[in-house]
Amino acid sequence: MDAHENTAGSASAPEDGPGPVRRTPAPSGAVPRMTLPGPPYDEPTERLLAKLMPPGTSLEPLMLFRLLAVHRDLAERIHPMASGLLNKGLLPDRDREVVISRITARAGAEYEWGVHAVFFGPAVGLGQDTLDALVTEEAASSAFDERTGLLVTAVDELFDEATVSGGTWNRLREIYDDARLVELLLLAGWYRTLSTLITSAALPLEPWAVRFPTAASR
Question: How far apart are CA 199 and CA 58, in angstroms?
């Protein structure tokens, strides 16, 4: 959710077809379901948006941050945790982005997936083919190496069952200590929460964000 927590666009999912993305498209459109603060911003909103956006950026405040600014007090309270998960976590950066990309794709939050696909995924070595596969492919796909496939499996189980199976848990314990396991669970949960906000508010895509791969490209 932080300045570095890039997010981008409406929550429309790909058409029905193979792959794990939600089958029912989330609401999307040019107009969100609620009025977002816009310029000129009042002073408290301007301060909040400045805190959420990266220092020195030329981008306009993200629509997600403007949506959060509808409830400024809450946005201020959740900011430390959100920023900590994105910028100060214990998980390897690539693992973090795999989890975020998969959970937002499963939730149909094209906005958040698309922002991370522009900024954060490439910055940690995730190519567009892998980012697209995190939208369209099952965990056992040859598109994923063993570690990525394990993370995808864990995220899918959390999305579908709100828990991790015993076998997956044991495999995760081979690569993570307890603190990192706690972070993994909170990371997936936080980005599912953000996805719910994005899709329910029908937040439009940022104009520069990456779109979900289309059914035709699978």
Answer: 26
d(CA 83, CA 67): 17
Name 72's Cβ contacts closer than 8 Å, sequence gap at least 6: 44, 45, 48
The H or E element spanning position 94 is helix 93-106
pTM of the model: 0.87
- Dig out the tokens for 69 from the structure: 């600014």
Q: Report the alpha-carbon distance of residue 163 to residue 192 in Å, rounded.
A: 14
Is the model's pLDDT at 15 over the cut of 60?
no
- How far apart, in whole angstroms, are the C-alpha atoms of residue 212 and residue 112? 11
User: DSSP strand E in the chain: where?
Assistant: none
Q: Assess contact for 149 and 141: CB atoms under 8 A.
A: yes
Instruction: Find where tokens 């044991």 sit.
Output: 170
Q: Are 68 and 52 in contact (CB under 8 A)?
A: yes
